[in-house]
């Protein structure tokens, strides 16, 4: 969503969640508009090659030019340089067998972010898809008890 769209619709984000390259976008959003983000949850950073057969159909929808641009952008992004600017509580989650988000890297990110904590979920990089219930619990926990339910206005 662009800044203009947010202004015109008076959007208020509470919890921003991102997985893989979406985690990079979530991080940028939390830094760019901190007044809209009450909590941030990041899952990993890059997609391992073994998951490409699962995700490739989604990438094909965007076309080769957009895909190349997306990959270049993701590879150039350095969350380590940005995470210290996040002012909201941040949950960093990795899969137990996640080769793209090693524990040491998450510990480095958490050390740079004053309100961050880390969790390790079962599985690999795609744990949010394999363990949806656990992922939902992690998101709810990151949001905190004051997050309104779906029927609240």
Topology (elements, then pairings):
Layout: H1 3-9, E1 15-19, H2 21-32, E2 39-43, H3 52-62, H4 64-76, H5 79-82, E3 90-95, H6 103-112, E4 116-121, H7 127-130, H8 132-143
Parallel strand pairs: 1-2, 2-3, 3-4
Structural write-up:
This protein has 153 residues and is α/β, with parallel strands linked by helices. It has a single domain, classed as 3-Layer(aba) Sandwich (Rossmann fold), CATH 3.40.50. Helices cover 48% and strands 14% of the residues. It has helices spanning 3-9, 21-32, 52-62, 64-76, 79-82, 103-112, 127-130, 132-143, and strands spanning 15-19, 39-43, 90-95, 116-121. The chain has a four-stranded parallel sheet, sandwiched between helices. Strand 3, helix 6 and strand 4 form a beta-alpha-beta unit. The longest helix has 13 residues, at 64-76. The chain is globular and about 40 Å long.
CATH superfamily: Alpha/Beta hydrolase fold, catalytic domain
Low-confidence stretches: 147-153
> How would a textbook summarize the main sheet?
4 strands, parallel
Give the helix proportion (percent range). 40-55%
What's the architecture, going by CATH? 3-Layer(aba) Sandwich
- From the N-terminal CA to the C-terminal CA, the straight-line distance is 21 Å
Can you tell me the overall shape? globular
CATH topology: Rossmann fold
Average of pLDDT: 75
Structural class: alpha/beta
Helix count, per DSSP? 8
Radius of gyration: 16 Å
